Amino acid sequence: MSYPETKKTIRTFAMASFLNDLGSDIIYPIWPLFVTNILNANMAVLGLIDGLGEAVVAISQAVAGYTSDRIKKRKVFIWTGYVMGALSRVGYAFARTWPFLVPFRILDRAGKIRAAPRDAIIAEISTQKNRGKHFGLLRAVDNLGAVCGVLVCLLCFRLLGYRNLFLLAAIPSAVGAFLIVLCIRERNISDKKIYRGISLSNFNTPFLLFLASSACFALSTFSYSFLLLYASTKGFRTTFVPVFYLLFTLLASFTAMPFGKLSDKIGRKAVLYVGFLLWMLVCITAVLVPSRSGVLMIFVSYGLHRGAMEPVQKTYVSELAPMNYKAASLGGFQMFIGLCAFPASLVAGLLWDEIGITAPFYFSMGMAVLSAILLFFVKSENR
Q1: What domains, with CATH codes, occur in the chain?
Q2: What pTM value is reported for the model?
Q3: What is the pLDDT of residues 236-263, one digit of tens each?
Q4: Cα dihedral: 213, 121, 278, 224 (round 10)
């Protein structure tokens, strides 16, 4: 693929990703209130619906990645994923009881079938010198779209109400699907035959070691909801706590591309270690600086941590993955990490309730150190 065409492809993916995250985060701040206050569901039902959604995300990425490699098609998964997101929000708008939400929540989260095939295209059209930059750009606009979505929600909610806001949120994803259909040209994938099935023998030792390292780190990084709750214990008003969400999302957006470019220059592992250190700084600050200034430092460090980790992890996976299993490897990686993230927040909650507010941070630091040790043994050659 020529450089101008590569540039056009990356920019199209970035714009579509921005639009989709804009739509998603228009409804993010009001979703729990809609489910509980408008549809009269209890917290258990809310947890069930959201938990089901995350399980669908994990499985759909792996299935789509494998299928994309198997049939040697990428584009159809990407635009279909955006269409599914748009249709689900229309469904939310017309829901009158909470059971009606379930199929549309599944449809919404199954839209993640777009992720692994899209990331595989980015990996295939990039080089060692710009792959981190490209994944960094994608994460930057993802986070920027999330910030803009939250701001649109805050500005328009009183004017439009729940259901009209859901309909508004469907529009950006529909436009993103149109951009993919119009601007992305399907690239021929290698004709070399793929194996009928996938087993561990298809993957090299560095890839498996990195998977183990990332799994340990996923077990250490509990949901940012815990950080928001931690902030609320330090005297911040409930209405002010969402500002911290905007803060770390903005920082992640502004730093993802610079960190990706840095990984192109100094190596993927070096930037991943920076991400580990930033997360450990979050934990150390929570333990040693239990004050308002400490909370600010926590969210600054957390935003920088996400900016460093998210693009570089995908870049490294795409480089360690076998040539014929790019999408399958990226999807499988996201599924495995997603499944490992489930018990992370559960363990953090149990430690918080049974031992104390700082216990999850001590546990997290220990798991992060183990992850860093495993990463040290990941050896890879430049491709």
Answers
A1: 3-183 (1.20.1250.20), 202-376 (1.20.1250.20)
A2: 0.73
A3: 776 676 678 788 888 988 898 899 889 8
A4: -90
